[in-house]
Amino acid sequence: MRLISWNCARHAPVRDMLSLLAPLHPDLVALQECRRPSCSDRSGIWGGENGNWGSVAASTHPAFPIEPMEIPSLHPTVVPVIVRTMVPFVFTSVWTHPPYNRVAWTAMTACASAANGLPLIAAGDFNSSPRVSGMQRESLEFLQRMRDELGLVSAYGHVYGENPGEETHATYYHQWRESQPFHLDYCFVPEAWAGRITDVKVGSFAAWRQSDHRPITVDIDL
Question: In sequence order, what are the beta bridge partners of 82?
Fold first, then answer.
């Protein structure tokens, strides 16, 4: 199974962004900062605060059918779906807003509770990194609590073994500048699934110039 998460920026059309990602052959896609699809566009399940700024969870393979999952009072740009495979799980597209770590933690605990024992995968733009000025302590605390209390680990961190804030592959370039790299986007998987991760890739700065973020791709052997 291949998961891709990408903040495609500037309220991009979902269908166009899925077309750009198609050569990477994803099975499930989490998009952030995208516009609401039209009623005739069945590209994915969208959530947002207005029609131009939202998050989408999409399936691009018939083996991974999805259905919406309603969680009362969930942040509008956090979009959970149930993936109806032989082993069902919850897949959540995440795009947080200030206060980032608090919003992310509240959303993740709500999703974990609503999953009711199903495995949970959460992918997206968490806007969280110890490299961000003033965020070091709370970002580290968020990542630690994700593991200790929810049993969720960063797929990138597991594969690369790099400390948070010291990642060598940036997912975001501040003001679109290569000289200002940050790792703000994550794909969290159940710790029990960490050994099934076969590969994690982050798009290069030279590619994906449509956005100031780069897609993160995670392969999991189910």
Answer: 67, 90
Rounded CA separation 159/194 (Å): 9
Q: Amino acid identity, residue 95? A: W
Nearest to 113 by CA among 97, 90, 94, 96: 90
**Burial degree of 34 (CB within 10 A; 0-12, 13-18, 19+):** buried
User: Cα-flanking dihedrals φ and ψ of residue 93, to 5°?
Assistant: -90, 125
What pTM was estimated for this model as a whole?
A: 0.97
As given in the structure block, the two tokens for residue 22 are 């198609």
Alpha-carbon distance of 204 to 112, in angstroms, equals 32
| Amino acid in the structure at residue 12 | A
Rg (CA), the chain: 16
Span 74-110, pLDDT tens digits: 999 999 999 999 999 999 999 999 999 999 999 999 9
* Rounded (10°) angle between helices 136-150 and 100-115: 10
List C-alpha distances in Å: 5 to 31, 72, 86: 6, 24, 23
Contacts for 196-205 with beta carbons within 8 Å, 24 or more apart? Answer: 196/220, 196/221, 196/222, 197/155, 197/158, 197/159, 197/221, 199/159, 200/155, 200/156, 200/159, 200/160, 202/156, 202/169, 202/170, 202/171, 203/6, 205/170, 205/173, 205/178, 205/181
Contact (CB, 8 A) for 172 and 212: yes
> Could you tell me whether strands 45-50 and 28-34 are parallel, antiparallel, or unpaired per DSSP bridges?
unpaired
